[in-house]
Amino acid sequence: MKIACLQFNPQLGNIAHNLKRAETIISRADPVDIDLLILPEMAFSGYNFKSAEEIEFHLEPTAAGPSTVWARSIARRLGCYVALGYPEYCAHSPSSPQGSMSRYNSAVLVSPQGNVLVNYRKHFLYTTDETWAEEGKEGFFSGEMPDGLGKLAMGICMDLNPRRFETPFENYEFAHHVLDSKADLVLMPMAWLTSQPQSSLVDQAQVPDADTLAYWIQRLQPVLDKGPQGRSEETIFVTCNRIGVERGASFAGTSVVVGVSKGNIKVYGCLGRGTEDLLVCEVPGPGKNSRRR
């Protein structure tokens, strides 16, 4: 199976620019026979909005706005699954109070045919999300992937952390979800911050943020302890993060594809903390060639 992570630097509120930039990176990389393409959290809107009023113009109807339209188009063009994050609004029924709607930090997954398979709403909110979004009430996502790709677990960024940084660290809520759902593949669009100086995003742009990567792996400790519970010999964990600085917030990049088995981590590929690029990794699993046989 061939997985691609599109790591880039979206500009806050500039959807047209961000769509064009993503297209440029894909065209430059010219990927062949990829099975899955993943983009960051809130990939085309930017992330650091300060209020519901400020983000209102950039909210997209459930799995039907510019982000999903782009995902469906690129999925058909490349013949692959596409996952990305976007800011969602969901209008309530006519019987609800006038103008009533819900807002979510969401991610969509579409099939190679352009069909929407998943619309996931972030379950654990970061403080920035709480200024405008509601918590997804359905919990973390799990489900069976078509084409024999196995079971999928999905979260968004903060979902990997303790809830509101208040629950005990050793609860490992998302990692236990991965185990309980017997996931073969884990997808996490991210807008993950770095604790490193802003200067390092330029001076060490090609170098992954080692602290961030180590923390992500640490948050998978129960999976590392027990090993995969699904059909696969290892659980493939994929994060696609963004880069750049937005309103003083510095993002860690370091998009990565890792395999987690009992007592072992295998890094299939990782981008630097300041690199705009398409990371393409081949991992165990039924890819396009095996499905064509």
TrEMBL record:
Keyword hit for Protein transport: no
Gene3D superfamilies to which the protein is assigned, alphabetical: Carbon-nitrogen hydrolase
Alphabetized SUPFAM superfamilies for the sequence: Carbon-nitrogen hydrolase
InterPro entries, per the entry: C-N_Hydrolase, C-N_Hydrolase_sf, Nta1
Superkingdom assignment: Eukaryota
This protein's record includes keyword ATP-binding: no
Sample GO molecular function, one term: protein-N-terminal glutamine amidohydrolase activity
Protein name per its UniProtKB record: Carbon-nitrogen hydrolase
Keywords for this protein: Hydrolase
GO biological process: protein catabolic process
CN hydrolase domain span: 1-285
